[in-house]
């Protein structure tokens, strides 16, 4: 698009801009002609396949945004652990903050499939930042779906524009997969709840404004859980140290600690006891988004590997001439397309409210996150020693998507959900 | 002011694609290749939209000439803020042979039909690099032209255009109606927002043909062949300045 062209031409007129991965690659392997780090001809893995004209427009905006605003910085954000709030705000101004949220409160009013397409495209620019956006979107949807009119209008406009950011708080040090056993309590005190407990591994924790939190208001087990919104600055709310992670470094992860934290009862979404359901319903969409982020990483990795095979020579010929690598690339492409179809199929099911939506979303996350990790790993192998260097992006894609097999429901929990559907009477 | 603005947008092969020559050596491969709006046209659209936001322009119309796929390009322009589109339908086979000469006639006719005050085009298309359409259209219409614009301001009912020319920067004042062609530094085009893409669906795209506009598309130029540029040969390293001079003399360069 014009901006990328301007960026390419500007060095001729002004000072050299910050060097991006593409430019560095041109310096390291000078045999690569100037425009080779380019768009792919591979039609089979084209993510635009099967989309409507409108969806292709969304994808196109997201891809351009990813390539221009995110990809040049993804390495720096990872190495320096920068949370790119300005880029998030920019994304919010384009409508990426509340993709499936109602238009009356500033959302874009689009479908789950549109959302998957958008996150898959953005993810090519930076998985970690896009994954955070998807978590933010999940929280917005929960407020949109379960909040009353006052709550929706009070909270969503600022969240949809990403002027304010949200975090999803379910996991605790003592309850991960066994989410129903969470122990953060919320004791009623007049017009307030007093919260006590802590939440672990909270994405955005400490830097975000609205915490959508699952707390225990009643009996043990899932039925005693309610969902509340806790605002940053609430008395008794504090945060742990920023965790050091293998990937997802462009978003801060901290423990969220409530010590007699006081919040108004009017911050509760829906009725007491509805919290677990709200959390699980939010996760259905979240799982699709996380899977979509894996797809984007795999797409970018396959394209990078493909370009490398055409350029790198050993034993007197380019790597693309070796059948082993040709076949391996074909397998990677096939796994990618299969995964993408599962995600998009599950997106349609979720949008339609069809009864198989939950197991389908679980299947999509289970298969896609694992297969895309495999794809990125194979792509890294194809780069040989170079793949291991931080100068090349495949290692970051690999590190970033590893956690997708764990959070928002481990692959094991996905199997639980699927087998439950298969075996229930 | 309430100018009526017409913007030309061309669907071209995306700037990032590695272009390949067709086996018949009569053109380049376009099938299955990513296309997008000509980057200079994006800049032109952005300028028109900014004029509307400043309340200098009243209505913006985008026009694209070519096969049905041009409608994608028009939708992108609509998503950026253009009010309505016109698609001059030219089938693929004819479109290959169409030149700036024909496009300028089409644009001139449309400008007259639509009562346009300001025609903004990209300075050139990145596929043919002709840099002729704006100038030819101005000639057909007998309008003033401000080409290679890197800044446009309205001054006293006239247009002040800052032009990037070989000698540096030139400022001219043009009376409207006029043609302006957009250069790289005129502005930074906006991203279409998701809500605007949705709104663009409802904006109208009118369809016309060259015959409707009374323009004959018979080619005036015949393409003989299209070839790859010669493969870059390895250079030679020399040990001293004397060596270099000798080699240059041998090559007949000095």
From TrEMBL, chain A:
Q: Which GO terms describe its molecular function?
A: flavin adenine dinucleotide binding; short-chain 2-methyl fatty acyl-CoA dehydrogenase activity
**Domain called Acyl-CoA dehydrogenase/oxidase C-terminal: residue spans:** 273-422
Which residues are in the Acyl-CoA oxidase/dehydrogenase middle domain?
168-261
Listed cofactors: FAD
Active site positions: 408
Q: Which UniProt keywords apply?
A: Branched-chain amino acid catabolism, FAD, Flavoprotein, Oxidoreductase
Q: Give yes or no: UniProt keyword Oxidoreductase.
A: yes
An example Gene Ontology CC term for this record: mitochondrion
Show the catalytic activity.
Answer: 2-methylpropanoyl-CoA + oxidized [electron-transfer flavoprotein] + H(+) = 2-methylpropenoyl-CoA + reduced [electron-transfer flavoprotein]; (2S)-2-methylbutanoyl-CoA + oxidized [electron-transfer flavoprotein] + H(+) = (2E)-2-methylbut-2-enoyl-CoA + reduced [electron-transfer flavoprotein]; propanoyl-CoA + oxidized [electron-transfer flavoprotein] + H(+) = acryloyl-CoA + reduced [electron-transfer flavoprotein]
- Where would I find the Acyl-CoA dehydrogenase/oxidase N-terminal domain in this sequence? 52-163
Pathway of action: Amino-acid degradation; L-valine degradation
Could you mention a single GO BP entry for this protein? lipid metabolic process
Tell me where on the tree of life, at the top rank, the source sits: Eukaryota
Give a short account of what the protein does: Isobutyryl-CoA dehydrogenase which catalyzes the conversion of 2-methylpropanoyl-CoA to (2E)-2-methylpropenoyl-CoA in the valine catabolic pathway. To a lesser extent, also able to catalyze the oxidation of (2S)-2-methylbutanoyl-CoA.
Q: Which family does it belong to?
A: Belongs to the acyl-CoA dehydrogenase family.
Give the protein's recorded name.
Isobutyryl-CoA dehydrogenase, mitochondrial
The source organism is Patiria miniata (Bat star)
From TrEMBL, chain B:
Report the GO terms under cellular component. mitochondrial matrix
**PROSITE patterns found in the cross-reference section:** ETF_BETA
Q: Does the keyword Glycosyltransferase apply?
A: no
The record, for SUPFAM superfamilies, names:
Adenine nucleotide alpha hydrolases-like
Q: Which InterPro entries match?
A: ET-Flavoprotein_bsu_CS, ETF_a/b_N, ETF_b, ETF_beta_N, Rossmann-like_a/b/a_fold
Q: Which family does it belong to?
A: Belongs to the ETF beta-subunit/FixA family.
Q: Name the job this protein performs.
A: The electron transfer flavoprotein serves as a specific electron acceptor for several dehydrogenases, including five acyl-CoA dehydrogenases, glutaryl-CoA and sarcosine dehydrogenase. It transfers the electrons to the main mitochondrial respiratory chain via ETF-ubiquinone oxidoreductase (ETF dehydrogenase).
What is the protein named?
A: Electron transfer flavoprotein subunit beta
